[in-house]
Amino acid sequence: MIKYSWIATVLLCLLLFFFLMHEVQSEKTLAFDTYIEELFSVGENTFSFTFFKSITHLGKSKFIGFGSLLCVLYLWMIKKDYWTMAVFSIGMAGADVLNGWIKNHIKRVRPENHLMETAGFSFPSGHAMVGLVFFSMVAYIIMKEIKGNSLKWAVGIGFVCLVLLIGVSRIAMKVHFPTDILAGFALGAAYSLTLFKLYKFLGLKYFKKRIQIKYM
Question: Up-side HSE of residue 35: CA atoms within 13 Å toward CB?
Answer without folding.
Answer: 4
